[in-house]
Write a structure and sequence with these properties.
Layout (H helix, E strand, L loop, with lengths): L1 H9 L19 E7 L6 H18 L8 E4 L3 E7 L5 E7 L1 H7 L2 E11 L2 E3 L6 E4 L6 E3 L1 E3 L5 E3 L5 E10 L4 E10 L7
Antiparallel strand pairs: 1-12, 2-3, 3-4, 4-8, 5-6, 5-7, 5-11, 9-10, 11-12
């Protein structure tokens, strides 16, 4: 697991360590926050913090809402749509507040994702773009970490955990959503 987060955070830049976000105890289906990089913290400790937080989010958050429509938050706006063939697509836009905090360029990665309580190989690799970019992606088939493959199905509980590295010195943010897969063709 540590290797996965370290690789995701590298994304063409130096590895960073992050302080625990201020909202770490306030888990919710639609949350995240910005925080400052902790000087001197080693990469393994940072990876462990992010991994623990992602696992807490999925384990403790019920999927009371469908993965449809627009999900607003101070870090980003995420829109979901499920195609008639079953693929769940999303658009991920940083808010003006996040852009101001993070800088003109951002690296967005998804180091962790879960389906029904089990970690999967995340369906989004790191992308470095201007902070106004639509960091979009989709998932239909997935593979459990160290295990078998599957296809998302109506009613599955999903958690997507995005990590954002800002171009301003010592800036980062995270964003996570836990939701339930809607029927195919839902917007």
């Amino acid at each position: 697991m540590k290797t996965k987060i370290l690789a995701a955070l590298a994304a063409g830049a130096a590895l960073i360590a992050v302080a625990a976000p201020a909202h770490a105890e306030t888990l919710g289906a639609n949350s995240g926050g910005t925080f400052t990089v902790a000087p001197g913290e080693d990469d393994a400790t940072a990876a462990q913090r992010v991994a623990q937080h992602a696992e807490q989010v999925h384990a403790m958050t019920p999927a009371n809402n469908l993965c449809t429509g627009t999900w607003n938050h101070a870090v980003s706006t995420v829109t979901f749509q499920r195609a008639p063939g079953g693929t769940l697509a999303w658009g991920f836009w940083l808010t003006n507040t996040a852009k101001a905090n993070l800088g003109p360029v951002a690296t967005v990665s998804m180091p962790y994702a879960y389906v029904n309580g089990k970690a999967i190989n995340p369906p989004y690799s790191p992308h470095t773009q201007g902070s106004g970019y639509n960091f979009h992606g989709s998932v239909n088939r997935y593979q459990f970490i160290g295990g078998s493959a599957g296809t998302i199905a109506t009613g599955n509980k999903l958690t997507f955990y995005w990590f954002i590295k800002g171009s301003k010195p010592n800036t980062a943010a995270d964003r996570y959503i836990t939701c339930q897969v809607p029927t195919p063709g839902s917007a």
